[in-house]
Amino acid sequence: MNYEVVYPRSSIERKPLLVHVPHSATYIPESYRDQICLDDTDLSTELLAMTDRFTDQLFTPARSCGATLFLNKVSRLVMDPERFPDDQTEAMAAKGMGAVYVSTSDGRRLRAASFSSRDRHSVMHDLYWPYSNALQDVVAAQLDQFEMCLLIDAHSFPSQALAYEDKNLARPDICFGYDAFHAPKELIGILEIVCKQEGLTIAHNQPFSGSYVPTCYYHQERRVKSLMIEVNRSLYMDETIGTYSADYDQLAQVLKTAHTANWALWGPRLIICRIEPI
Predict the structure, then answer these.
(1) CATH number for domain 3-273, candidates 3.30.420.280, 3.30.360.10, 1.20.140.10, 3.40.630.40
(2) Cβ distance 149 to 16 under 8 Å?
(3) pLDDT tens readout for residues 140-153
């Protein structure tokens, strides 16, 4: 199975809170390694650039607030669950980085020349759709139980723009991504206060914008709220080798405070009000 769902310790503790961690994994199954034409050294370099390392650990404290965690266990280089399934509607497909990547972050070939449309279909069938359907089921269960779902989309980003990214955009400490339809507006305000109290710089929808919502609910279901939290990797890791830095524990504590503030200040209103006015 290419995903893991981690529930609170008891059903009584569960809240309508879902933390999605799509890009923290580096694992590439052997059957898919054969499709990738990079040698081991170049593949390690690409994984270092493209993996949101340690975001699974940084956002785990949300579980103590009643959150369900949904973790991708396979590298995004194999399959990216946050892309639209059809390359015709996925903007990043033009850069070779749709749901199934065929190019690296600097525009080189990632998949072997022999990689075919049939191979892509197999990746989608075996990995993308089971993942997408399982995540959709978790959201549906929260809607059934609580009549709402708050999805936190957990990411990190390199302090220096990658080749395919816009180098003119600022690289703040924290980026909040959302759209008007699904934005949890009050929560964004609360988290901004928490982060600024810790001296962190904040940007909204840059250098990254939007937040993941299962396609069946996207711009259809206002009870599904979604906020992407992007953390600058320079805050917690050595980006040159992909290890923890001395500041990791400090950032982890800030995020733990944010999780607590999230549920303590905003959660009760969700339960009472169900749907936040737009």
Answers:
(1) 3.40.630.40
(2) yes
(3) 999 999 999 999 99
pLDDT of residue 271: 44
pLDDT tens for 37-57 read 999 999 999 999 999 999 999
Contact 254, 194 (CB under 8 A): yes
| 167 close to 174: Cβ distance less than 8 angstroms | no
| H or E segment to which residue 56 belongs | helix 55-58
| Cβ(55)–Cβ(19) below 8 Å | no
Contact in structure between 51 and 25 (CB atoms under 8 Å): yes
Domain ranges, ordered by start, for the chain: 3-273
Q: What residue ranges of the chain have pLDDT lower than 70?
A: 12, 259-278
In the numeric block, the tokens 């033009």 are attached to 94
| 204: CB partners within 8 A, 6+ apart | 175, 176, 177, 178, 188
* Joined tokens for residue 236: 């917690």
* Closest C-alpha among 186, 178, 152, 189 to residue 275: 186
pLDDT the model gives residue 170: 92
> Which residue, 214, 183, 245, 243, is CA-closest to 26?
243
Alpha-carbon distance 177 to 188, whole Å? 10
- Residues 259, 206: Cα–Cα separation, whole Å: 22
> Do residues 21 and 59 make contact, with C-beta atoms less than 8 angstroms apart?
yes
Taking the whole predicted model, whether its pTM rises above 0.85 is answered as yes
Considering only CA atoms, give the Rg of the chain.
18
The Cα 69–Cα 42 span in angstroms is 31
- CB-based contacts of 135: which residues, under 8 Å, 6+ apart? 3, 20, 70, 81, 214
